[in-house]
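Task card 7
Instruction: Convert sequence to structure tokens.
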Amino acid sequence: MKYNMLLIIFPLVMVGCSFSTSTESLTDEIITPDIEKIEDVGSEMITHHHMYDNMDRGNHDYVDKTLVIDPNESEIFRGDVVFFINEDGEKDLSRVVALPNETIKISNSQIFINDKKLDTFYGKAHRVGLDKDSYFKMMDKEGNDYDKEVMKKVFDYNLKEKKLAENEYYVISDDWLRGNMKVLNRETVIGKVIGYTK
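Output:
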């Protein structure tokens, strides 16, 4: 009798558990990987020549470009590239993936926000614009010398759930190997990158 009860209860528990895991995803229909060229830079804008490749998606995005930053944009959205002061007092930039009061988790380099999969071009690790399989195939086919173990760690990265405070954002550079992955306090943000001049 006890065995029969277990046979009945166990499937019910398993079905109940399956409903607690969200299959919903979070998309971004507005932000694209492209960076806009700004012809007329207003006097209220800030310019910054960015030399680092932390935002490279395979087209040298943001690299060796004079970026235009709007310091007056008070509202920051998911997907925005922000210009900020880092821990060393230097100016840096990265993409916002999680907003204040949200919970972020990363599982095998896939970002989840409040248990929803971040299903957008910046929601998962890549290297020079390529996903894990495409990257390793390309590197091996071309006979490139690279540290495969380091790249496996990038593509298999995990972050335990982290709840952000009301003045915190979570930022990740577009190239996970080369840039930031951290909590960013709103007070350190100088402005939003809106494009480049040259």
